[in-house]
Every structure is written in C-alpha cells, then in structure tokens.
Amino acid sequence: MKELMGIFRLMLHQKRDIVLSIVFGVLAGVTAVGLFAASGFLISKAALLPPIQTLAVLIALQKISSLTRAVSRYAERYYSHRATFTILSDLRTTFYKRLEPLAPGIFAKYRSGDLLARIVGDVESLQNTFLRVVYPPIILVLVFLCTIFFVSFFSLSVALVLVFGLLLTGFIIPGWFAYREQRFARTVRARRGELSTEVTELFQGYRDLKIYQQLGNKETELNEVAARYVAEERRNGLHAVSNLALNTLATLVISWLVLGLGAYLVADGQLDGVFLALLVMTSLTVFENAAPMAILPGFFEDSRHAARRLDDVVTDEVIPTYPSFQLDAAPTLTATDVTFAFPGEVRPVLRNVSVTFPRGSKTAIVGASGSGKSTLLQLLLRMYPVDGIMIDGVRGAEIDPEALWRQTNVVLQQNHFFYGTIRENLQLAHEEATDETMELALRQVDLTFSLADKVLEKGENLSGGEKQRLALARIFLREAPLYLLDEPTSSVDALTEQMILRQLFARATDATVLLVSHRLAGLEQMDQIVVMEQGQVIEVGTYDELMNRQGAFYALKQVEQSVFTPDQLAR
Questions:
Q1: How many CA atoms lie within 13 A of 416 on its CB side?
Q2: What pLDDT does 450 receive?
Q3: pLDDT tens digits, residue range 186-235?
Q4: Among the ranges 55-64, 239-248, 439-448, 553-562, which has the highest mean pLDDT value?
Q5: What is the distance between the alpha carbons of residues 532 and 525, in angstroms, rounded to a whole number?
Q6: Cα separation of 241 and 410, whole Å?
Q7: What φ, ψ does residue 504 adopt, rounded to 5°?
Q8: How many CB atoms lie under 10 A from the CB of residue 203?
Q9: Pairing of strands 333-340, 389-391
Q10: Which of 48, 57, 319, 485 falls between 20 and 30 A from 407, CA-CA?
C-alpha cells in the first residue's frame, strides 16, 4: 500500500470532486435499492387489491426514485471521472518534473523501450486507482450500511445475513484473490516491459537488421516475448474471471438464503408476507454494489506495481537544490583526480584525470577512440554526478546542470533533430531569432537550406555532415561564455571544417572552448592540447611543445601523416 501513498496525496487535491462523487454514488446506490424494494412491495401489495390511492402513492415513489437514481448516477460519473482525469494529469506532471532532472543519465540505467512503457503504460494504469480501487469499497460499505439499517426494521435475522454477505463478497473473497493476485500482476507488468523494449529495438534497428539479414531472428525473439506476455495476460484474465464468477455465485447464494429465511419467517408468522418480495429484491439489488469488488484485486495489484515501477525510476535519485549559478565571463574548468565508471559498470572509463582549462583558452582534447574524451566532456557538462569537477571556482556538485547548460554552447556527437522545418529546429537554440539571423547562421556553416525546408524525424533526410553543420548553426544563434564541442565536424570535409572553425573561433574570442577531435590537422591555433589514452591524461601542452617532446601526440601525428597524404589531409 505504501507504493500508492503518492497517488493518495494527489487525490487530496481533488477532495471536492471525490466527496461529491461519493455522495452521489451512495445516493444512486440507495435509490436503486429503494426502487427495487418498492417494486417488490408494490407487486405484493397490488395482489391484495389495496385502495387505488395506495397504489398511486407507491407508483409516484417509483418515479421519483427512478429520476433521483438517474440524476445521481450521472452526477457520480461526472465528478468521479473528472477527479480521475485531473489526478492523472497531476500525476503525469509530477512524474515528469521528477524525471526531467535525471536526464540524460537515466538512459544509462533504463532501456528506452522499458522507460517508455513506464512513462506511458504505468502512468495510464494508475487512472484506475481511484475509480477501481478506492471508490468501490467506500460505496459498498455505505450503501450496505444504509440497506442493513433499513432491513433491520423488518427482520434482524435477514439483516445479519446481509452483514455476512457484505463481509463475504466485499472483503473475504476479494482479499483471498488479492493475495493470489500479487504474483500474477508482477509477472504481467514485467512481460509488458520486455515486449515494449523488444518492439522499440525492432523499429529502431529495422534498417540494420534488414541489411545484415537478421530481421527474421529478431522477429522470432519478438514473437517469443509476445507469446510469454499473452500467456501471462491470459492466465491473469482467467484469474480475474474466476474471482468475478465466485463473487457472483456468493451473491446468488446469499439472495437464496434471504429468500429461504424470509419464507420461513412468513410461515412462522414473524414476517408479514407482503414484505417478502421487498426483502428479496433488496438483496438482489444491494449486491450489485459488490460486483466491482470482484475486479478490485486485479486493479489494486496493477496500480501498486505501476506505482512501484515509476518510483524505481525517480526515487532512487535525490533531487538536490542548488544555489544560483551565473557565468559573467569565460570560466576556468578544472578536473582533479577524477575517476568515473558508468552506472552499473565496474570498469572505469576515466582514471585519476587531472587537467585545467584556463579562462578564455582554446583547448583540443585528442586521443584514440575509447580513450575517454567524450566522457570527460560529459562530466564537465554535469551529465553525470562525479567529484573533482570545478567550474569557475565552484564545485560541480553545487551547480545546477540546467543553469550550466543555459550558459553553454554544446554540440555532441549525436544531435537530435525534430520533425518539422529547418526554422523550427534552429529555434530550439533561440526562440526569438529572426529569419535573417538564422539564414546568416546557415551560411556560416556552409548550408544552403531554406528555413522552410522539411526535416524528417531524427533528421533522416539529412546527411551526417549536414546534421553536424545544422547543430553548429544552432550554437551560432546565441552567445555563451563556454563552448563544449564533441567531434562537431567529424563528418565534414577538411576545407569546410577549417572555414567553420574560423567562424567559431571568431565568435568565441573571449569564451572558453573545449574541442574534442580525432583529427590532428589544424590544431596549431589551439592554446593547449590534451592527449588522452585509456581513460587517462598522458600529455598536455601546445602544438609545438608536444611535437618537440616527441611523445604520444607526436606518435599520433606520425600515424596520421603515414595514413593520409598531404592532399588528402587538405581535402
């Protein structure tokens, strides 16, 4: 139950609608019982040929009860569903606010398909918490108490039978099935997450699977996962149906007991026979409120496990509060004895890294693939929490990542582009940028696009070089004292690369610039070069210093020159 405490707190925000839905729900249940009880009494009384005035009064009461029941039922549905949808909206907003600060590190912990299943499916499942878990027991108890009080005026023994029926159909049978339901719901939700993950991977990797002739194998795996999920759903469905069938059987048996006991009381002279039909109709009607209790265990476990899966995503991390952070000028960045491994991995990506990037300097970080260059850049961006990072004299742990990102121009290896136009994708960096400013940014990165040109999802209609240049055009739209660039021109030819870098350095004259690059040509203009190897910084210096030292950077330069001719490097 503790998993649902957050949902219960959100319910308190809608207490007015919840109270009104309960009031009208009880009124609808009581009037339904009264309507059918009066029907039974009317039939019995009519057989005795009473005065016409008596029948007229009973018929009028029937009409009033019918009208009251219809209005109450409508109001109950209106207020209960409005409360439910508002609670669901609050839940989505609250969960997103808790999830947003965890990005992008959250993707190192959860696969995208599983995360999508939690965000969409599990949140959607929690809409049943009020309507199917909290609401039915309240209505059941209140309507039964009113009915039992009413029946006690006619027969205490029949009232006691209804009390037994309330306990049996409202609590004992649902409680037993709720105990058995625990293992079913957990398995079904896990299978659903597996299926969502496999489907997501199939769609995202469809092209590669097709090229390497592995689509059939992946489809087979997906079918196996789907079959396991369907089997669990079928077993869970049978469990729910058996619960409903047993509950219905119990209500029927109780109604037969009321009929038998009432007939005995009439024969024994303890009950007027005209009230027998009233008691039987009352019993049959009041147990309609017990029907939702049959499906309550399934919804309870479904809601509980959905809440737990959502909490697993956002409660493991403590969202700290940060003091305000403002970069008034180009900052100095320092990494001191930084060691880092990705979440869930033992092998460290960085080991004892210590390096300083002075204020306003232009630094290139070079090294072989897998040496830790991009990871160091991500740590400086505060994408992952780590000790040893200082930005402008402030410990990284004390800096709000969003405040840092707002004041930093960033180009990563993988840049996302949304379905829309070139204009809309550029406005992500600067919403108020004019068309003239955006067109100038496109020219500075040698792109001939029109602002109205379409961009497909993930930039599928753009080449690798065009994606990188469009990402660079974004940062040309805003001023920032810090530039962190991860292979921003790796897919661009050398001449265009040099032109873009000249434009970049002209804009970032007074800024601190960190450039991760696997190309060693054109680094002569950098203030310093940091050479990394196997997660460690092995050399730091200017281009001339490193070449004269004839160490790791010199060796990399010799390899590059032996692989590419001067003409190839120029191109």
A1: 3
A2: 92
A3: 677 678 778 878 887 888 788 788 888 888 888 898 899 889 888 888 88
A4: 439-448
A5: 19
A6: 56
A7: -65, -50
A8: 9
A9: antiparallel
A10: 319
Cβ contact 319:338 at 8 Å: no
Backbone angles phi and psi of 301, in degrees to 5: -65, -40
Type of residue at 224: E
- Supply the range of the domain harboring residue 394: 333-407+480-570
- Distance from C-alpha of 494 to C-alpha of 151, rounded to nearest angstrom: 92
Residues 295 and 383 in one domain: no
| Most trustworthy range by pLDDT among 45-59, 98-112, 166-180, 334-348 | 334-348
Helix axes 276-286, 215-267, angle to 10 degrees: 160
- The beta-strand segments (E) located in 28-116 are none
Question: Domain check: are 285 and 353 in the same one?
Answer: no
**What angle do the packed helices 215-267 and 291-314 form, to 10 degrees?**
140
Domains contained in the chain, number: 3
Judge contact between 365 and 526, C-beta under 8 A: no
d(CA 133, CA 140): 12
The tokens describing 532, both together, are 């990394």
* 107: DSSP letter: G
Q: What is the mean pLDDT of the chain?
A: 86
pLDDT band at residue 318, thresholds of 50, 70 and 90?
A: low
β-bridge partners, 333: 357, 391
Here the tokens at position 354 are 């210590």
Task: Of 21, 28, 23, 25, give the one whose Cα is nearest residue 68.
Answer: 28
The CATH number of the domain holding residue 206 is 1.20.1560.10
Do 270 and 399 have their domain in common?
no
CATH of the domain at 493: 3.40.50.300
For residue 72, give the nearest of 40, 133, 30 by alpha carbon: 30
Average pLDDT over every residue of 142-166: 92
For residue 569, pLDDT beyond 50: no
For Cα atoms 501, 502, 507, give the angle at the middle one, nearest 5 degrees. 95
Tell me the two tokens of residue 424: 């809309």
Within a domain: 526: yes
The pLDDT of 275-293, averaged and rounded, is 87
| Residue 351 main-chain phi, psi, to 5 deg | -135, 115
Taking 50 as the threshold, does the pLDDT of residue 377 lie above it? Answer: yes
pLDDT higher than 60, residue 293: yes
The answer as to whether 106 is a domain residue is yes
Asked if 143 and 24 touch (Cβ cutoff 8 Å), the reply is no
Confidence (pLDDT) at 571: 47
Whether 421 has a pLDDT exceeding 80, the answer reads yes
Residues 40 and 61 in one domain: yes
Is the pLDDT confidence value at 330 over 90?
yes
